[in-house]
Amino acid sequence: MVIVRSIRRDDLAPLMTLVGDAGVGLTTLPNNEGLLRGRIEASLATFAGTADKADEQWVFVMEDVAAARLVGICAIAGAVGLREPWYSYRVGTVVHASRELGIFTRTPTLFLSNDHTGASELCSLFLAPDYRVGRNGALLSKSRFMLMAEFRDRFAPKVIAELRGVSDSTGRSPFWESLGRHFFSMDFAEADYLTGIGKKSFVAELMPKHPLYSSFLSKEAQAVIGETHELTRPARRLLEQEGFRFEGHVDIFDAGPALESNIEDIDAIKKNTAHVVAAISTISTTALAASTAEASSALMLISNTRLSDFRVGLGRCAAAVNGVTMDADLARALDVKLGDKIRMVALRPAERTAQA
Amino acid sequence: MFVLRPAELTDLPQIEAIAARSAIGITSLPPDRDRLIDKITNSRYAFADEVDIPGEESYFFVLENAATGEIVGTSGIAAAAGFHDRFYSYRNEIIVHASQELKVSNRIHALHLCHDLTGFSLLTSFYIDPGFADSDLPQLLSRARLLYVAEQRRRFADKVAAENPGVCDTDGRSPFWDAVGRRFFNMDYPQAEQLSGGRSKTFIAELMPQYPIYVPLLPAAAKLAIGQLHPDGELPFSILMDEGFEADTYVDIFDGGPTVEARVETLRTVRLQRRLTLSPNIKGAAGDETEAIDAAEAGSAVLSIIANTKSEGFRATIAPAVFGLGADGNHVNFSRETALLIDVDDGDAVRVVALDPDSHHLTGASW
């Protein structure tokens, strides 16, 4: 069984092993022990409620319980851009028109913005390659919405997710080559690393501040504005199914899209429900589903509701008037006992019922 | 002998022929009869009007071979660039992108669309018959304008600018336009200009990109074209450079050619010219109609640009002149023929500057 849980101090060593595999592009997850330790401490403080708003970092890991192996990571930044400016380019349009001259030119532009300042950010998603099967990716990505559903006040009204932009197998980004490189003589991978270790605003200080006409960039670069890296497309699809939209903000280095949604419009949060555990069955929930009329036939994201040891898993649940019946394995994995409060929502948006 | 004078409507056929021959870069000399008629008419009003502050006046001069009546060149001055509206140029700027933390400091060249030169007086319409390019006439054509400015200071701004043609290939394609303007117009510049139908360039300028252009993002050919002069513009440009114009700050928003600027009083011709009195009789007998520079004087004569102090009747020419005459040294003498040509009489004031002012510093009262 695979679950997602809040990160612990003793996760550092397995985490180092995990991110060694991530490669270029995961800017919020640099392969740097000191920084990873810092992120773990920040997460512990955040869950404990002792972190400053500006420093809040909710970090989760995915664990294969049976194998006792750490196989994935994801995080939420509580509010971006409150310590250092948060930059993105807003893709805009400037129209140059003259009726008399018969001219109507639509020119795409890039405006440097701090529009996302204060937003909560979904970030640092990484799943070990051998676990990129089944529903693990969806569980990892959506587990965060379970926490947000339970503790909505701890998050900003606007939630964003920056997705990795297009680069080739050597890490060469056409957007960076056409824009950033002129202003900053270093490779994208290096700029990306500097960003990851918290120097993004320093790098940004070297980038052009005035609005840019996209038409001055290479055709290759223009083509990747707002486009997602091939390997990140499944992640984008997951977010889009939850209601996230590309609203025209892109990363200043690789032009990858920032998807955004209001927190109350995220489908998994909107249709999330709270229940009391009425029974724990030794029969598997699949069998329960088959035998009980009220059983949920859909695969559900199920979480406990504790900040101290937050856990999310996948399972089926039989719901009754007085509460839900969970199978014993899942209850154990989520550390849930009779009478505890849990949250759940169908994993697949199509299987969710409209519910307040 | 050649004389520079305000253009008249009777000059139209000859000016039309010149406009047809002149390069694309000389936009102030359009090959269009109606526009040329307007230009001459406006110029005649400008010279005739009593003007206290520079406005929409545009002064248009022609250079005439006095013997044949042939016009061999033109030049002009617009009193206030972009008077009704704005005068656009790109200003070269350096933006320093620096990070102490990363130990990086980059100097980024950017072009800022600006209206800085709005209200400057503008030297325009320079054209010389190629057969006279190597003569002294280009000096007369360009610099006699400045004698008019010196005499008529109220009519002009304290600062003066001049546009110069940028580089283009033999088909008239400008690499700067192709990299910048074309993106917003998707047409050749001559075509865009033609479309604008003789309206001011402001009309087109308003369709140009308003945000700064980061030069590193431009293709190499366009970068090279910034501030680069078209070979056809070398002659008038070199005269302006000798006058002390600055060429580093502004470029044309269409072809990237250098737009030069200076304060009027720093221009060499303006600094070194003198307002003197014509006094051929100081040495000769009063009323001697055959009076001319005598042999002794001819030896000390300096080849000079000489202009009268009239407006409508403005005339200027190049001729030898003898300076430093009279008790106060403020008198000048030149040939009777010259006096007739520029329509001055004994006792009249003239503006004079040596053709080569660096080797002949004139004495006498300053303007």
Question: How would you describe what is shown here?
Answer:
With 356 residues, chain A is of the alpha+beta class. Chain A folds into 2 domains: 2-86 and 115-265, Aminopeptidase, CATH 3.40.630; 271-351, Barwin-like endoglucanases (Beta Barrel), CATH 2.40.40.20. Chain A contains 10 helices and 16 strands. Chain A has helices at 12-19, 33-48, 136-150, 174-183, 188-205, 219-223, 233-241, 267-270, 285-291, 328-333; strands at 2-6, 57-64, 69-77, 88-98, 103-113, 120-127, 158-162, 212-213, 245-250, 257-262, 273-281, 300-304, 311-315, 318-320, 323-327, 341-346. The longest helix of chain A is centred in the middle third of the chain and has 18 residues, at 188-205. Chain A is globular. The two termini of chain A are 30 Å apart. With 367 residues, chain B is α+β, with helices and mostly antiparallel strands. Chain B has 2 domains: 2-87 and 115-268, Aminopeptidase, CATH 3.40.630.30; 273-354, Barwin-like endoglucanases (Beta Barrel). Chain B contains 12 helices and 15 strands. In chain B, the strands form 2 sheets. Chain B has a 10-stranded mixed sheet, sandwiched between helices. In chain B, β2 and β3 form a beta hairpin. The radius of gyration of chain B is 22 Å and the shape is globular. The relative contact order of chain B is 0.14.
